[in-house]
Amino acid sequence: GQYCRVLATKRVVTVRRWDMLCVRSPAYVCKITVFCTPTPCPRRFVSKVGFQPRGRGAGSCYTACMTRAKAIEILDKMKKLFPDAPVTELTNWETDFQLLVAIILSAQMTDKGVNKVTKALFAKYPTPTAMASADHREIYDLIPSINFAPTKAKYLLGTAKTIVEKYRGQVPQTVAELMILPGVGEKTAKVFLSSFYGYNVGIGSDTHVLRVAKRLGLTQETTPSKVSADLEKIYPKNRWHEVNQYFVLYGRYICTAKAPVPNDKCVFEFCSYCHPGYDKHD
Asked: Is 196 exposed, middle or buried (0-12, 13-18, 19+ CB in 10 A)?
């Protein structure tokens, strides 16, 4: 018996289930006011929300009333799809330094492509000290198939030298310190700390996390930092490392960039891309 009333483009729509609220907005972006009545409604608020058009790849207005309980339900469902999933699909690494190197190489590159070169790379340069004494051209010769290999070779050399000279050969364990290293941005730092230590220091939004979060209505943002901020607000901190892990797997194998529409593999009927005809009012 709890209702939300929605004022949008001179129309008043009353719907049940405040957590499943959806407004079919016109082709243009509209500003609407959402408020809940009567008093027993658990979410009494007045807020202005900008909705994007629905359709293939468009942001879903599901975001407006996405609850933490629903977001956790999404994550739990992903975990069941990958019960024996590894922390990362990057292989050949044994130490924190080697995993960090692999993550740096994985930027705009598939994990499979990285795995093809890291075995030989780590055999020759297993430690920061060993890599710091190399020439960037020697490193490049071991990773020629990696996207942006010349630049990444310089990043790896710079990272190894910084670790040796500034951190006494120990890979730092904070986002701020990691971001001092060449080739390490906020996303790389968060993913590394999450994957190696299980630290919940933040959610790193790579291309898979960006795509899945947008399609499932968890955010309407487009930049990694803003998407990460939205996800960190809705998910409890002790589960951030799981978001890093399972959103990537779901985006890599199920809700892919070029998945067929409708996508029978997608288990979320409200996905704005895989099931564009879904109506939350039905």
From this structure: buried
Give 108-118 pLDDT, tens digit per residue: 999 999 999 99
**Looking at the whole model, is its pTM more than 0.90?**
no
Walk across the sheet containing 11-16 and list its strands. 11-16, 3-8, 30-37, 46-51
**Which pair of structure tokens corresponds to residue 161?**
């030298």
CA distances in angstroms from 190 to 88, 99, 204, 279, listed in the order given: 13, 13, 6, 36
Amino acid at 18: W
Tokens of 192: 């590394």
Token readout for 195 is: 């994957």
- Whether residue 120 contacts residue 107, with contact meaning beta carbons closer than 8 Å, is answered with no
pLDDT in tens, 181-221: 999 999 999 999 999 999 999 999 989 999 999 999 999 99
Q: Judge contact between 184 and 159, C-beta under 8 A.
A: yes
Question: Strand 46-51 relative to strand 3-8: parallel, antiparallel, unpaired?
Answer: unpaired
Which residues are part of the catalytic machinery? Answer: 187, 206
| Side-chain-side CA neighbours of residue 68 (13 Å) | 9
